Amino acid sequence: MLGTLIAFGEAVIVMVIIRAFGNSPGIVLTALFLGAVMVTSVAMIAGSAGRDLMGTMLLGMLFLLPLAIPGFSVLFPGTPALWVQYLPSYGIVHVILGATVMGAGWAESGRYLLVLAGWGVLFAILGTLILKRRMETL
User: Fold this and answer.
1) Cα–Cα distance between 124 and 84 in angstroms, integer?
2) pLDDT level of residue 40 (50, 70, 90 thresholds)
3) Which of 11, 17, 126, 129 is deepest in the core (most CB within 10 A)?
4) Distances in Å between the alpha carbon of 94 and those of 58, 61, 110, 134, 137?
5) Which pTM value belongs to this model?
């Protein structure tokens, strides 16, 4: 929970500094919170599965680097490739871009927010199970 709050706080600070909330700050804050839950859950999986510092860092990079791909796809014009749209973090990018630039509302963002929440719950459950198994083997 603390990791989620720290990640969410950092994202909100950056969004305030660059004035990027647009006309729908509620949608953007919801997407940021769900993204923070997802990323900290993925980090819990990497931290629980790693055996030492290097293994944990490797797993963290293997899990977190693909989650950054949708963010970089925004830099290139056009619709992102279909495989990019299936990545768990695509919902964050789509919702924030839609709410800040295109004026999308809750109706347009709801589907992506639900998918993002589902990924967050799935990763949190996986991370908890992996951590439980890791603690039993110690």
Assistant:
1) 22
2) very high
3) 11
4) 28, 23, 11, 35, 40
5) 0.89
